Inverse folding.
């Protein structure tokens, strides 16, 4: 679940021990399993509620809790009413599962956050449903590629802005745009920790100059729009969609910065990714 963008702020980054990072990895495995299993049911005719039910069953199997259910970022926002976020087509993030059926050609973005033994894992993926147009398929694949460009740019001694610049450059040269109103974030002990991790470079955000140091755990999550990056929010108070009705895609991993580089903490038990478009 993405953090709302805001301007300058004091950073209080929670650096994790080796043992804490292992705990986040265990939570991340549950996240990955849910994304993997939901992908198998992202087919025409299935309601988005069916995907949420699958995730709920996996959480219960491990004794984990949804990090999203009941989440309320402010008094003005209603508590989030579901276990996971499921967003279709022009809904970028925070779509609420329900009776709406998946249709041929849809893009189905899922965002999963789990709290397990005191640690949080957070990841997202956009499924390409059978019958998708070439432009929809390409958008999802390029968003996945942008995530890995951001991950590749993360290294000890670098800066948050290295990640932001890598994602923005990759996306914009391909004619897409990256969302400005929502950003990645620190994660691991809490769902949303500092620093913010934008997918674009903005001098008004002090987080861009924050160095990447061993022990930091962050969620990198490009949210990419087919057309313009401006957004609107539905009357449910949560579903964020493109203002122009263009398609969108979303991929995310939780990563850890260590002495020698980075590691992805939201992978399957065998080390594979839960979904590759």
């Amino acid at each position: 679940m993405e953090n709302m963008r805001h301007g300058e702020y004091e950073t209080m980054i929670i650096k994790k021990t080796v043992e804490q990072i292992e705990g986040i990895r265990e939570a991340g495995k549950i996240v990955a399993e849910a994304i993997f299993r939901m992908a198998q049911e992202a087919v025409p005719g299935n309601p988005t509620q069916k995907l949420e039910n699958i995730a709920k069953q996996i959480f219960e199997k491990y004794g984990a809790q949804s990090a999203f259910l009941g989440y309320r970022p402010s008094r003005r926002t209603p508590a989030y009413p579901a276990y996971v976020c499921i967003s279709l087509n022009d809904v970028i993030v925070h779509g609420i599962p329900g009776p709406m059926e998946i249709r041929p050609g849809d893009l189905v973005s899922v965002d999963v956050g789990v709290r397990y033994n005191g640690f949080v894992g957070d990841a997202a993926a956009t499924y390409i449903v059978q019958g998708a147009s070439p432009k929809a398929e390409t958008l999802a694949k390029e968003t996945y590629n942008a995530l890995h460009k951001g991950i590749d740019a993360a290294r000890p001694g670098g800066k948050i802005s290295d990640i932001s610049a890598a994602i923005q450059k990759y996306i914009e040269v391909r004619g897409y745009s990256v969302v400005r109103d929502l950003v990645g974030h620190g994660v691991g002990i809490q769902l949303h920790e500092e620093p913010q991790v934008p997918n674009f470079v903005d001098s008004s955000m002090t987080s861009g100059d924050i160095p990447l140091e061993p022990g930091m755990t962050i969620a990198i999550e490009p949210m990419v729009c087919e057309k313009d990056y401006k957004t609107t929010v539905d009357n449910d108070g949560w579903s964020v969609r493109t203002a122009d009705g263009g398609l969108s895609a979303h991929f995310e991993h939780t990563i850890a910065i260590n002495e020698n580089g980075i590691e992805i903490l939201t992978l399957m038990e065998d080390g594979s990714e839960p979904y590759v478009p």
Notes: The radius of gyration is 17 Å. The helical segments are 18-40, 48-62, 134-153, 160-172. DSSP finds four helices and 16 strands in the chain. Residues 267 and 273 are 5 Å apart (CA to CA).
